[in-house]
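Discussion board: Methods & Data

I've been asked by a reviewer to show the raw model output for two of the constructs in my manuscript, not just the figures. I'm not sure how much to include, so I'm pasting the format here to get opinions. Each protein appears as its amino acid sequence followed by a line of discrete structure tokens. Is this the kind of thing reviewers expect to see in a supplement, or should I convert it first? Here is construct A:
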Amino acid sequence: MLWIEGGKKQHLHRGLKTMKTTNISHERLSHGDLKRRFPMFRLPDDCEGVLEHEGYDMYASRCLHALQVYFILSLVLSLKPMILLSPFPSFSQT
């Protein structure tokens, strides 16, 4: 699994700390590393990444279903709307 974050990288640093503490195999990637290994991504200059070697597969259909269920339940139960977190300001929603 590839984690990418820019800005203050708070989530990335927390994830790294957890991976080190729990001995999860990972590799920290600088912006240059990300550009070389994943040239298909256009990333801001302040992004760094972590490649988790023992990551897991996420099935798009299951993820979409979970979002649909959450959306319907949020309408019925008046839950707070989900916030999309993104390292890219243009993609973030508040």
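Construct B, same format:
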Amino acid sequence: MCKIVIIFNFFNILKWRYFTLGLNDKEVLELRKKYGSNEITRKKNNTFFKILLESLSDPIIKILLIALSIKIVFLFKNLV
């Protein structure tokens, strides 16, 4: 245990009082101001429908949909 404390003091990573006692309220507030809070930001979830609507705005997709609709029209015209 003593070797761990000596190593931490040597590299100035942690001090003995932080290692055993933790931070007091004042130190917590100061460190939050300096480094920010320890929170993970959530990124937006892309739903299937949102991705589908975004892909429909692509001009190539619009051309392919028009070609598909023309093909379907001629398919049903030949059946009648």
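Answer (T.O., handling editor elsewhere):
This is acceptable in a supplement if you add a one-line summary per construct. For B, something like: The chain has a mean pLDDT of 79.
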